[in-house]
Design a protein that fits this description.
Layout lengths: L3 H9 L10 H15 L7 H7 L5 H13 L23 H10 L11 H13 L19 H7 L5 H7 L3 H8 L2 H5 L11 H19 L4 H7 L3
Helix pairs in contact: 1-2
The protein binds zinc ion.
Length: 226
Amino acid sequence: MATIEDIKETALIPFQKHRQLSMHEAEVITLEIIGLLCDSECKDEKTLKYLGRFLTPDMYQDLVDERNLNKRCGYPLCGKSPERIRDPFSMNDTAKKFLLENNPYAYLSHYCSKFHFRCSQFYQVQLSDEALFARTGVHLFEDPEQDKHDIDFKVTLFEELLREKASEEDIKSLISGLKKLGLNPDSGTTEKDDTELEDDLSKWLAQIKIVENDNPSILGDFTRED
Ligand code: ZN
């Protein structure tokens, strides 16, 4: 399992002498991070949150894809396999394609559960589009602007929201970017138009609201495929 220290040792140590990364150096860091996490997982939430300062949504998608190739749940905090891979029925390619295009649970080919599909979407929409080489100093162990990086590239995990019982407003503002993501055909969902997606999101919010009611058993229901 990978820790922040592992990320520093594997990907960042060679670049500690300068604040400005070249495009090539940024690429090397990206590849090292994906290499580290495509066949392992983050040891804790802190590590996944720290990773946010190096990832763009596209890079994150590459990581999810690589993890899937290694038969791992796309969510980098998870050590399980996607649900569909554990399916004992083998399928030919046509059947697989049909299932992916027509099955509302297509995300199960990429994630172990609906819960981790949501956690992953939620993480991805918060990532900055800014290229890594433009994020001056984020890779340094000691940087005068460390506090600024913490704010600029802060990512809140869905698990944290559940624990903190965030208000509906907090959640709404955080997921406003999800629309964009849901339209991405690579994200593991079937393609949706805006209305369907809004509908999907409001159902999701309703589920979260139930969690807010301080009923611990609902979390079990929530993590299950519905
Ligand atoms: Zn998972």
